[in-house]
Design brief:
Layout lengths: L1 E4 L4 E4 L20 H26 L1
Antiparallel strand pairs: 1-2
The structure holds zinc ion.
The site of zinc ion has 7 residues, from loops.
Length: 60
């Protein structure tokens, strides 16, 4: 199934343009949104803090 490369303005056989290397398809993979990276980072820091609190509590 032929795809259309917007960058080169030409039809492309397959899912990758051999001229510019762009990946073509109906659902292009988007990178992880920055807000999710931030959310995951905050969650990990919070969990480390809770584990640290637990260890401190157990030490008593
Ligand atoms: Zn292209």
């Amino acid at each position: 199934m032929a795809q259309w490369c917007e960058t080169c303005d030409r039809s492309v056989e397959g899912s990758t343009c051999e001229v510019c290397g762009a990946t073509l398809g109906d659902t292009p993979r988007e990178p992880l949104p920055k807000k999710w990276v931030f959310f995951i980072a905050v969650t990990i820091i919070y969990l480390i803090y809770r584990i640290y609190q637990l260890i401190t509590w157990l030490a008593h």
